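It is worth pausing here to work through a concrete case rather than discussing structure prediction in the abstract. The textbook approach is simple: state the sequence, then state the predicted structure, then interpret. We follow exactly that order.
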Amino acid sequence: MLMRTDPFRELDRLTQQLMSPGTWSRPSAMPMDASREGDEYVVAFDLPGVTADAIDIDVERNMLTVKAERRPATKADDAHMELSERPMGVFSRQIVLADTLDTEHIRADYDAGVLTLRIPITERAKPRKISVGTGAGRKEISG
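Step two, the predicted structure:
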């Protein structure tokens, strides 16, 4: 699928990250990649610095929602922040899943700051071969 590019989209994203952290009512976006590997779709989200227990994944009908919260690291009492560029707060992404995906069997793994979801394709959506009968079993009715 091709998407139109917006030259200001990246600038807007960077401005949003630097100006305001995400909150539960207004989360920031998280970057993702999506691909198809065999009989499943693989979606990877970048969540560096987020602990696994701070990730929330929900599926309602065909809407997949991923929320995560990056909390500030604990510091010593005498520590003073000199520079803070890493965004903190809540990050969220929603994806509309096709009816051909099996939402009952989604697998989630989190490793090295990357959340990977594997969503299988339903059996009814996979290509299948249909055999053609020869009609040899026909019976003629006489009367």
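Step three, interpretation. The chain has a mean pLDDT of 81. The two ends are 61 Å apart (CA to CA).
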